[in-house]
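Encode chain A's predicted structure.
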Amino acid sequence: MTNDSRPRVLISYFFENDSIPLGFACRDAFEALGFEARGFHGQAEHVFNRRILKPAGKLAKVFMRRPVDFSRGTRWHNQTYREAELRRVVAAFRPDLLLVIRGNSFDGEVIASLKAEYGIRATTGWWVKDPRSDDQMLRDARIYDHYFCIHTHGYGPESGIRHLPALGLYERLYRPKSERHESDFVANIVFAGGHGERRERHLRPLVDLGLRIYGPGWRKGRRLFDTGLRRAWAGSGIWGEPLVDLYCRSRVVVNVSSWDPQRLGGQNLRLLDVPATGAFLLTDHTEEVREYFTPGREIETFTSPEELRDKAAYYLAHAEARERIARAGLERSRTLPTYEMRMRSLLDAINW
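Encoded structure for chain A:
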């Protein structure tokens, strides 16, 4: 147990170098606000399950033609193992505040018992995933004392869920690395993110413009035999400093949300991350975007796959206009909310 007199917050999210850095950003923000902050990797997996049971399940699926989970009912099952690890960390750290960013979920009885046994003052959930048409998010919200969501779709005032955007500046990572010069670019168009049907519809028309895709799921099933997507795919993932370097050395960075933000609201983190590196961002258009940037002046937007292709081609051919917008986007990004401000808003909302 720590002897530090500061309030303690434990944040459950992804805390590996090959994952979204939101957890690190929030941890740093709480430290700046006077907390002792610690991260818990909510995607922790037992080595026996990863190396033995999961491969055995995949092999069995080939013969049985259905998913097989050999870990179910054992202490090596992902959910069981993660909850045991969370209990171990809570027992050692004794947080005053537990923030679970969704992320991976935990059973309601586990969260309740941790709060009662270890004196946690407040448990808080934050849904940063895509909108859901079922009641999954509503059920998840009942587990915690407080609950937040990055979009406004799928819940009403009676739910107790409050809106908290995940968009914030993380200047420790997302920053310009060098001046942008045509001779330094290594890619025309880049997209970093996992496969989704909506993303595929928008990105497929960009293949012949020099598209590079980094992310999982793009070489599965029928896509494995798609020559265009196979040519565009550059790797299963890129994170951290290599990703920032890629943004800085690409002419156009495309952001396509996995959900339709015009209909469901909410924005993913690229909206602030990309301009903060000084790169040119071409992203989904929504009215919410205008709360942060002026389209056509600081970033560019699209409303359809056809418009995305037209604008990508235009800005590849008009470097001066593209780089003028990229510079304006960088300047604007420096005035936008930081994660310290976001976490301060969360604390104010829960009366901390």
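Residues 47-64 form the longest helix (18 residues).
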